[in-house]
Here is the input.
Amino acid sequence: MLLIGLLVLAGGVTGTVLSRSGDGGAKTAQREGGVDAANGARASKGDATTSSTGTKNRNVAAASTTPTTDPRNPDAWPLSGAKARSKRVPILMYHLIAPAPAGTAYPGLWVPPTELEAQVEALDSAGFTGVTLGEVWEAWHGDGRLPSRPVVLSFDDGDISQVLGGAPVLRAAGWPGVLNLATNHLGKGGIPMWGAKRLIKQGWDVDSHTVTHPDVTALAPAALEQELTASKAAIKARLGVTAKFFCYPAGRNDPASRAAVEAAGYLAATTTEPGLAARSDDPFALPRLRVDPGMSGSTVVALARGTQAQTAGTGE
Ligand SMILES: [Zn+2]
Here is the structure.
């Protein structure tokens, strides 16, 4: 189930039409053939800010676009100390944020922006606040604070739809996301550099999802180490940020790969095992909650509250 990697390795997805909902009306573009031109146009009109600095400044980013008050104020979050350390946190798992193109082999990986928007609104109404995994980790293991109902929204692989369809929804809520990046997806056919930088500027964390999206349990030790260290190095060199966490491709992990992730310097890793994440979990096997196409806001809220169990399925 290496959809994105396979598409990239296969040399493109010409003919796949990706419907995008960005700053307003829906746009369609011919993926691959049209992506460079689209990137150029978009970079010149809408992304001037990303060239100035790679520093994360959530308040500036939020204030410059939306009139709403940024609800995130980590210094005022109510949970600290033992209450923060014992807080169980839902980590939601998304992939592509666009309507599934007709005939796609993996329709389950596509969530339209309108559905993401309804889910974020429902979570917000239910009292949830979006946080990064780094913020959760600081509250679990350091002196960081958490909102009363934290939720992490993670986006796997690295795709332009996460920039055009996902980021505007999170930005409107004043929430950051987490990009789990397979670093071969950074650039043409995946997530363009300007897009990844835009996410960082909007407060997102970028974590490693390997270089080539292999099943890490099938790799020889040297190849596994290469995937773990080269992806971390590429994120640092190309995006200027440190990937503190790792995400297993397709969720596949075993004792050897978990030990290798730890040895490579990551603090923790996420899987596709369902459940709420807790400080008491094996940090190298944190569970997540898969968001499927068609899920209502109330279903996602129930998953995030832990009142509804995740149905069986797979993730990437
Ligand atoms: Zn993946």
User: Anything to note?
Assistant: The mean pLDDT is 83. The beta strands are 17-21, 26-30, 91-94, 129-131, 150-157, 178-181, 205-208, 245-247, 268-270, 289-290. Residues 217 and 257 are 6 Å apart (CA to CA).
